[in-house]
Design a protein that fits this description.
The complex is a heterotrimer of chains A (46), B (378) and C (536). Chain B has 378 residues and is α+β, with helices and mostly antiparallel strands. Chain B is built from ten helices and ten strands. Chain C has 536 residues and is mostly helical. Chain C is built from 16 helices and no strands. Chain C has helices spanning 19-24, 29-57, 68-103, 111-133, 154-157, 161-189, 202-233, 247-281, 288-302, 317-329, 331-345, 354-377, 379-385, 389-419, 425-452, 466-495. Chains B and C meet through helix 1, helix 2, helix 3, strand 7 and strand 9 of B and helix 3, helix 5, helix 8, helix 9 and helix 10 of C.
């Protein structure tokens, strides 16, 4: 395995970007904006 | 500061106490207090029992693990010439232990969980459809307020300073939470500022006081006595100075206590409502007492405060400045700080406190604030 | 984002930089691992000093040394320094050093990001220390008296030092998320050909699970403290009931991070044990597959039981029953791990060098802490234990053996590999015995204090609690000062000693023992062949 192999580097960076995107998603959903969405949905259902 | 500080000689009874306490599972509060105090309510007894059950199961499992490990440490060592059994993980036990062990642990878990769940159902929710006595317990920085909602009585409870409390320092208060025995009591917990938690070990529960929330717990005391606990959720500087003392008395004595408290309340209200002009000396004397109970915890007896969290009043710009700002700060508090709104005090009390603050220590405004001035400022 | 920097060429190893450049610009996993470990060691001493001050104050009833806010500030600082400053960086240091060696990779997958994730730490550590010292300067505001849980509304009242702390937490969070991403990518993409996931050494497996946990939970903490910052300065009321917010929401966010964090601290040390015990028992790890299954189960169940830290907030009966049963269920995978360790020792040919002594102590003491954890999970009884010294005793019994002693075992185990010198075995054993005695003397009596009714985080207590506090404080001084011996042993080993062979321990298996001690600057540039018996 050659560490300078461009194919491996692309593969590494792609996986790192996917993981960091996932971390950002978790960060954003930790803000409770969805509480209001649930409320609005609940009221709409009535 | 410490009268009971023990040296090595104190360790010997301690160790014997430990051994005795561990062997006698239902020991009452040993000399050094190594287990929960004896419960004072039937539900508290249930909680105590589930605590003892899980502790016994845990102790048993611990002994099993320790025995196996110590056996292995002694016999399976290179220095004794024990040959390592390289195929141990390939025996039938090695192949199936991943099923056997979780199954055994699951059995223990289910024993604990089913017992705990049964107790939980009895203690968690306040009984419905029954007549309960409501006591609202409000946490403040750093005192407790008890509202007997059924009787219109309000009790403020603050720690007793060391000179008066002696050995009970941090376990004693000026006004206790007086409760009747054999009465189902519902506690409504809330807070005026930050988080606090109500904890009296004899009642065997703890509940957070959360601003904006009202949480419920209940109990029915089955014996008379004085039960001591304290605030259990970190609430700032003087978290250590929020003792809780429950005084459990018979229903007849409780009714007499209620009558006394109501009489005191009527007298205080009459005094505050009286349309009289108060002299500076009267207000200063009243103000000193009130300041020392309600304000001195933060601003200190000397008025020096504890900067930066608690500003000094001695020489303060607000206390020595225009009186309107002073009224506003006392009545409405300062949001986002530990300074709470004291608007629930009556006009006379606020007038006395402000008069005292403006004339105590090095403050020399010469103001005499009348209750009518406070009424106008509100 | 930082990842773009990795698009440039990975530096070729024509000339190895020397002096400060070697460390500041390092992209070498061994150097970065060393930096992590040194940083953790420095923070260990600072966190330890704050703990000793706390215990010195609690030596007798009354307020002798500290004022109450300073006491609470130390309580906060001790927890944050130890968790974020010491244990997590030390575990990351072991990961950096060992993972590439163990899987036959030349380096971490993203070496420049590796450099970044370490060099954020000194900045974060400075912020953390500033949050402690800023109140001592004029105009510095009040001290952080909230404890590491930072519960609002109390944390809204604190002065500007809380803002320093919030930024410190953000930096620490970024650092560990970046390190986790790097570790996951390394483990998934960089293994030597033939090393399948199920042949990977257990230490790598524990870090894979840990890294996923970190990516899942650290952003939640970041979100929580960001909202705290907004509530403090920008007029929002996420956590302010008066403005329509919910103070309990912060507790849920905090413990959604905080409970998996416990396993983040624990799992790398479990990984170390999975290497130490087979080595010194001279037989393979018992139940490799069940170990892997157990740690995945711990990670998964651990994500969904956070509210057992908040039984007293007034949840519904259904909610507390769920969290109670979920928490008790965790004892199944954890019990299986402990069982596997004991079964590895069983019928082995054990010898007791310092790493093995720590490993045995961990098994015994962690079992103890785990069982008191089962007691705490029981809701009705927890209404008594909650926020008492019993809890303090419990989590120190879990975290000290479970995390810190595991790291000590790892350091003694791999120190000859890193430095090329054997450490002084006699001093190592003396350190172990003083350390473990001091630890038990400190924390065992705290169980009794909690049961007798002493809450945690109080500066002053009634005289009825004196005896056990005296014992605990004496123990804490022994425990605290014993770490100077650790420092001495480490320095002595770095400076010299009996040369270590490449396979330092007779029973050691794995690729890391096939390179020289100390390993050359670059290892496994051609991937090693994987033979069955090499996998742990």
């Amino acid at each position: 395995m050659n560490p300078h192999d461009p194919q491996l580097r692309r593969k590494n960076i792609r996986l790192a970007l996917i993981l960091s995107g996932f971390a950002l998603l978790v960060l954003i959903t930790s803000f409770p904006f969805w509480q209001n969405i649930f409320q609005i949905l609940g009221e709409a259902a009535k | 500061m410490c009268r009971r500080f023990t040296t090595v000689s104190g360790l010997i009874p301690l160790i014997t106490g430990l051994v005795a306490g561990l062997s006698v599972t239902h020991s009452t509060q040993a000399e050094y207090g190594i287990n929960f105090p004896p419960p004072a309510a039937d539900v508290a007894q249930e909680i105590y029992d589930i605590h003892m059950l899980t502790m016994q199961i845990a102790t048993f499992l611990l002994l099993v693990v320790f025995s196996i490990v110590i056996y292995s440490l002694y016999f399976h060592r290179k220095s004794r010439g024990y040959p390592a059994d390289q195929q141990f993980h390939n025996t039938w036990f090695g192949n199936w232990s991943w099923v056997i062990v979780p199954a055994l642990v699951l059995g223990v878990d289910l024993t604990i969980a089913s017992n705990a769940d049964a107790v939980l159902k009895k203690v968690w929710d306040v009984p419905k459809g029954e007549k309960l006595m409501d006591v609202k317990v409000t946490g403040h920085q750093w005192w407790w307020e008890f509202d007997y909602l059924d009787y219109g009585i309000k009790v403020e409870s603050r720690y007793t300073p060391q000179e008066q409390a002696g050995d009970l320092y941090l376990r004693e208060v000026d006004n206790r939470l007086v409760l009747p025995t054999n009465t189902k009591i519902r506690f409504l917990h809330t807070s005026a500022d930050v988080l606090h938690a109500f904890w009296v070990p004899e009642l065997a529960f703890k509940k957070d006081a959360i601003p904006g929330y009202v949480t419920e717990t209940w109990s029915e005391l089955n014996r008379e006595g004085v039960f001591r606990g304290q605030c259990a959720e970190l609430c700032g500087t003087w978290h250590s100075r929020m003792p809780l003392v429950v005084e459990s008395i018979s229903e007849e004595k409780f009714q007499a206590w209620v009558a006394d408290q109501q009489a005191i309340k009527v007298a205080a209200a009459a005094e505050a409502a009286a349309t009289k002009t108060w002299s500076r000396e009267e207000l200063m004397a009243k103000g000193k007492t009130l300041y020392e109970t309600k304000c001195a915890a933060c601003h200190q007896l000397t008025g020096q405060g504890l900067p930066p969290a608690f500003p000094p009043l001695n020489g303060s710009a607000i206390v020595n400045g225009p009186i309107e700002a002073h009224f506003n700060l006392v009545i409405n508090g300062k949001p986002g700080t530990a300074m709470q709104a004291w608007g629930s005090l009556n006009d006379l009390e606020i007038a006395a406190i402000i008069t005292y603050e403006r004339n105590a220590w090095d403050n020399r405004t010469g103001d005499t604030v009348q209750p009518t001035d406070v009424a106008l400022a509100r | 984002m930082s990842h773009t920097s990795t698009l440039h060429d990975v530096p070729h190893h024509h000339a190895n930089p020397t002096g400060w450049r070697r460390w500041l610009f390092s992209t070498n996993h061994k150097d970065i691992g060393t930096l992590y470990l040194l940083f953790a060691l420095a923070m260990l001493f600072m966190g330890g000093a704050s703990a000793m001050l706390i215990r010195a104050e609690l030596f007798q009833p009354g307020i002798q040394l500290l004022d109450p806010d300073l006491y609470n500030n130390l309580v906060t600082n001790h927890a944050l320094l130890m968790i974020f400053g010491s244990v997590m960086p030390a575990a990351a240091g072991l990961a950096n050093w060992m993972i590439p060696l163990m899987i036959g990779a030349p380096d971490m997958a993203l070496p420049r990001m590796n450099n970044l994730s370490f060099w954020i730490l000194p900045a974060a550590g400075t912020m953390l220390i500033l949050s402690f010292v800023v109140p001592f300067f004029p105009g510095g505001g009040s001290q952080i008296n909230t404890g590491w849980t930072l519960y609002p509304p109390l944390s809204i009242q604190v002065g500007m030092s809380m803002d320093f702390l919030i930024f410190a937490i953000h930096l620490l969070g970024i650092s560990s998320v970046l390190a986790s991403i790097n570790i996951i990518v390394t483990l998934l993409n960089m293994r030597a050909p033939g090393m399948t996931l199920m042949k990977m050494p257990i230490f790598c497996w524990t870090w894979l699970v840990t890294a996923f946990l970190l990516i899942l939970v650290v952003p939640v903490l970041a979100g929580g403290v960001t909202m705290l910052l907004f509530d403090r300065h920008f007029g929002t009321s996420f956590f302010d009931a008066a403005g329509g917010g919910d103070p309990v929401l912060f507790q849920h966010l905090f413990w959604f991070f905080g409970h998996p964090e416990v396993y983040v601290l624990l799992l790398p040390s479990i990984g170390v044990l999975s290497h130490v015990i087979p080595t010194f028992a001279r037989k393979p790890l018992f139940g490799y597959k069940s170990m892997v299954g157990a740690m995945i189960a711990v990670g998964t169940i651990g994500m969904v039981v956070w509210a057992h830290h908040q039984y007293t907030i007034g949840m519904s009966l259904g909610a507390v029953s769920y969290f109670m049963i979920g928490t008790i269920i965790i004892s199944i995978p954890v019990g299986l791990m402990i069982f596997n360790f004991i079964a590895t020792m069983w019928r082995g040919a054990m010898s007791f060098e310092t790493p093995m002594l720590f490993a045995v102590a961990i098994i015994l003491m962690f079992t103890f802490g785990g069982l008191s954890g089962v007691m705490l999970a029981v809701v009705p009884a927890d209404m008594q234990y909650h926020d008492s010294m019993f809890v303090v005793a419990h989590f120190h019994y879990v975290l000290m053996p479970g995390a810190v002693f595991g790291l000590f075992a790892g350091v003694f185990y791999w120190l000859p590999k890193w430095t090329g010198h054997m450490y002084d075995e006699r001093l190592g054993k003396i350190f172990f015995w003083i350390n473990v005695t001091g630890f038990n003397l400190t924390f065992f009596p705290q169980h009794f204090l909690g049961l007798a009714g002493m809450p945690r985080r109080i500066i002053d207590y009634n005289v009825m609690f004196t005896e056990f506090n005296v014992i605990s404080s004496i123990g804490a001084m022994i425990f605290g000062f014993s770490h100077l011996l650790l420092l001495y042993i480490v320095i002595k080993t770095i400076r010299g000693g009996e040369p270590a062979p490449s396979r330092v321990w007779e029973g050691a298996r794995g690729l890391e023992w096939e390179v020289a001690s100390p390993p050359p600057f670059h290892t496994w540039e051609t991937p090693p062949p994987i033979r069955q018996e090499q996998s742990a």
